[in-house]
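ok trying this again, last paste got cut off
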Amino acid sequence: MPSFGDPFARKRAANAKALGVFGVNPVTDPNLALTRTVHQGNGVIVYTVGYERRSPSALAGTLRDLGAELVLDVRENPTSRRAGFRAADLRHICAEAGLAYESWPALGSTQAQRDALHESGDLESFKGRYRTFLRRYRRDDLARLQKLVAGKTVALFCFERDHDSCHRSVLAELLHENAGITVVAVL
């Protein structure tokens, strides 16, 4: 399992330090585009991030640098064929980076929803079915999530790197609609 102190993370930290000499903050400088604001809200921020084409330590480091406090895994099955992205591994990597980790599988898209998406390729229908599912069967979980993000800087975590191609975009949109929360996608 990769360590937060792995060579990639150390190189990333050294590069950030070098950029700092020139007055550039690699996390907040808009020219470096580490994030994209999806919905502007009331100042409470929720990040959305996918692990596709990322290393575990780089992901944890980026979230820590952005000020996230909690990585909230919203996969129905918090497993992965990629080392470092299983729930137990993530818990350890996040702890090394000073982040909390929780798995909330109830907020994952269901296998049936994913199968229908793979069959049809219709992302908008998938999102509509997932939104309906959340509103009908996961109202309590959504309310609990809304309360959680009001008190902590949370990163909603799943596989897809592209926020707009993932079910977490629907979760984030509902948080924005219901509580005015700012949604920021980690690129």
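PB: full thing came through this time. The chain has one domain: 7-186.
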